[in-house]
UniProtKB/TrEMBL annotation:
Keywords, in A-Z order: Aminotransferase, Pyridoxal phosphate, Transferase
Cofactor(s) recorded in Swiss-Prot or TrEMBL: pyridoxal 5'-phosphate
Signal peptide: none
Species for this entry: Flavihumibacter fluminis
Keyword Nuclease: no
Lineage, highest ranks first: Bacteria, Pseudomonadati, Bacteroidota, Chitinophagia, Chitinophagales
Domain Aminotransferase class I/classII large, chain residue ranges per copy: 19-369
Annotated InterPro entries: Aminotransferase_I/II_large, Kynurenine-oxoglutarate_AT, PyrdxlP-dep_Trfase, PyrdxlP-dep_Trfase_major, PyrdxlP-dep_Trfase_small
The protein's name: Methionine aminotransferase
GO molecular-function terms, A-Z: transaminase activity
Highest taxon, organism lineage: Bacteria
Length: 372
């Protein structure tokens, strides 16, 4: 198992040095006052006791409507949606419900740091496959070659953390063929589903009926609505898989914060609550890219998420962790080294920036980065 996460380490260092934190993926701008009022109203109206184990039914119903509207997939709110305390919890519970000792899970690196510990907790084996650099494309031949009789599942993440890349429709079709022909399961980390830019379309497993039948799709309200501290999300899976998921969930968490569920259910009735998110965050991404043209960093394309990776070859030959520490201590800007998203922690030529910040924060950070 791993120790303290890089996110905890870098955020603590940023606080120690009074640095601007472009490392950890949380916004520094306020969430919607409409959503806050909806949750406050829920509390005032008495929705303060346990919600059902699967989640507040009106919330599951509005999510089913959203899924049908966005992805053309009919899901049953009673049996195929479960509200969870965050997306990370949903991913862990999905793994726990299907993995057996000795199973193997394909993990594409760089990868969010919870995946491998989740797999190990079930006494299964992560099989690590590196995405192709510099643009983090998917190595389909390597993935196919890694499948054997012990392979149980594959975890995917789109939009991708840390790179900001997105999966294409062609990628999803290849995944569907791989999964169906080898009878694999998919854990699909889609917490940034609404943060897809430049007119591109989010390729959810929910768009592909044959793929969905073998998938757990995991989502986050915290990422969607800029309230990461709420730790609330949900999982969508076909009935047979959800039954196993709920067996774990009912004895681990059982019930999620009721007022938040009631408030979000009301808020989601207005489709603009999620349809306008991409343009809102793309404006921040574009502003950050424009500001960074004044620096010596080499930004990679970002098609989704909160994040943009950058090379620093014109500035330093330090390993990325050492360079990230140097930036924080000496220049007052905290980032995340991309090597932290690999299990072997080999130095990477990239660091990750979070651009989900106020304009003033981005301006102040880049002013410091111009001097690097």
């Amino acid at each position: 198992m791993q120790g303290t996460t890089i996110f905890t380490t870098m955020s603590a260092l940023a606080q120690e040095h009074n640095a601007i934190n472009l490392g950890q993926g949380f916004p520094d701008f306020p969430m919607s006052p409409v959503l806050m009022e909806a949750v406050n109203q829920a509390m005032r109206s008495g929705f303060n006791q346990y919600a059902p184990m699967a989640g507040w039914l009106p919330l599951r119903e509005v999510l089913a409507e959203k899924i049908d509207y966005l992805y053309g997939q009919s899901v049953h709110p009673d049996t195929e949606i479960t509200i969870t305390p965050g997306g990370t919890y949903a991913i862990y519970t999905a793994f726990t419900s299907i993995l057996r000792p000795g199973d193997e899970v394909l993990v594409l690196e760089p990868a969010y740091d919870s995946y491998v510990p989740n797999i190990l907790a079930s006494h299964a084996k992560p099989v690590l496959i590196s995405l192709n650099q510099p643009y983090f494309s998917i190595p389909w031949e390597e993935i196919q070659a890694a499948v054997n009789e012990r392979t149980r599942a594959i975890i995917i993440n789109t939009p991708h953390n840390p790179s900001g890349t997105i999966w294409s429709a062609a990628d999803m079709q290849k995944l569907q063929q791989l999964v169906v022909s080898n009878e694999l399961y998919v854990i699909s980390d889609e917490v940034y589903e609404h943060l897809v830019y430049d007119g591109e379309t989010h390729q959810s497993v929910l768009r592909y009926p044959d793929l969905f039948q073998r998938s757990f799709a995991c989502f986050s309200f915290g990422k969607t609505f800029h309230c990461t501290g709420w730790k609330i999300g949900y999982c969508v899976a076909p009935k047979e898989l959800m039954q196993g998921f709920r067996k774990i969930h009912q004895y681990n968490c059982f019930s999620v914060h009721t007022p938040s569920q009631v408030g979000i259910a009301e808020y989601l009735k207005d489709r603009s609550s999620y349809l306008e998110l991409a343009s809102f965050l793309q404006e921040k991404r574009d502003y950050f890219i424009e500001l960074m043209r004044l620096t010596r960093f080499n930004l990679l394309p970002s098609k989704g998420s909160y994040f943009c990776c950058a090379g620093y070859e014109a500035i330093s030959e330090l390993p990325d962790l050492d360079f990230a520490l140097h930036l924080t201590r000496e220049h007052g800007v905290a980032t995340i080294p991309v090597s932290a998203f690999y299990q072997d922690a080999q130095p990477s030529p990239y660091i990750r920036f979070c651009f989900a910040k106020k304009k003033e924060t981005l301006e102040a950070a880049v002013e410091k980065l111009r001097k690097v």
